[in-house]
Every structure is written in structure tokens, then in C-alpha cells.
Amino acid sequence: MTDPIADMLIRIKNGYLSRGKTVSLPYSRFKEELGKLLVKKGYLGEIKVESEKKKTKKTIVLGLKYRGKEPALENVKRISKPSLRTYANFKKLGKIRGLGIFVISTPKGLLTLEEAMKIRLGGEVICQVW
Questions:
Q1: pLDDT tens digit sequence for 48-96
Q2: Fold for domain 4-71?
Q3: CB-based contact 63:22 (threshold 8 Å)
Q4: What kind and span of H or E run contains 40?
Q5: In what order do the strands lie in the sheet with 58-64?
Q6: For residues 37 and 72, what is the distance between their CA atoms, to the nearest angstrom?
Q7: Structure pTM?
């Protein structure tokens, strides 16, 4: 797998399309932080990190959230890809517009576009979620 973040986002989107309750995926610290950010912003219900007793292999279980019958997350767009990284300094971040939230990877961790603008910090534009 060349892009685990895109895989995570598509698994979440497919989970919503199939009206599932949870989605599980292989563990990484970056995915865990992205999941926590999506929970904080209301796009996911909960996040759990589970590990098997005999093995050290961890998985992330994401609880999907619905508003009535509609999914909380309608679509995702991966912006920075392994083949073409997209970085933006503070001035360029002010020009980014669109629906939902943009996730920015900064030296202070994963932040939304608004949080990064408040502390005047740029970084890699990971994805857009709406």
C-alpha cells in the first residue's frame, strides 16, 4: 500500500456508503491523530485502539456517526499525495477555500485550517473533509 492515509479516508467513506457502524484499519500514530481530529469535529462517533493479546499488532476501530439517516461525512478529498506533496505557508493557507474542514499537518501536530490560521502556522495540506 503506497498511501495509507488515502486508504483510511476511503475506508471511512465506504463504511458510510454501506451504512456500517464501525470501520477497522491497521494502526499508525498519524491515523490515530487524524481519527481523533475527525471525532473532535463531529465526522466520526468514536475511536478505539485495540490490540490482540498474543500479537503486538494493533488496529484502530472507528465508530461511524449519522445525523438521522444521513452520514456525518459526505465526502473526502486527499490533497497531498505521496507522488505530489502539497505544502502551504501561513499566507497561502489564507487563500484555501472550500466546504467542510481542511486537515493540515504542522510542527504542532494535526490541525484544521482554522486552528492553523489562528496560530499563524503552515504545513502539509493532508485532506479536505465535508
A1: 999 887 677 899 999 999 999 999 999 999 999 999 999 999 899 888 8
A2: Ribosomal Protein S8; Chain: A, domain 1 (3.30.1370)
A3: yes
A4: helix 29-40
A5: 22-26, 58-64, 44-51
A6: 14
A7: 0.92
Domain limits, the chain: 4-71, 76-129
Strands (E), the chain: 22-26, 44-51, 58-64, 66-67, 70-71, 76-78, 87-88, 101-106, 109-112, 123-129
In this structure, what DSSP letter does residue 98 have? -
How far apart are alpha carbons 16 and 8 in whole angstroms?
Answer: 13
Q: Which CATH architecture has domain 76-129?
A: 2-Layer Sandwich (3.30)
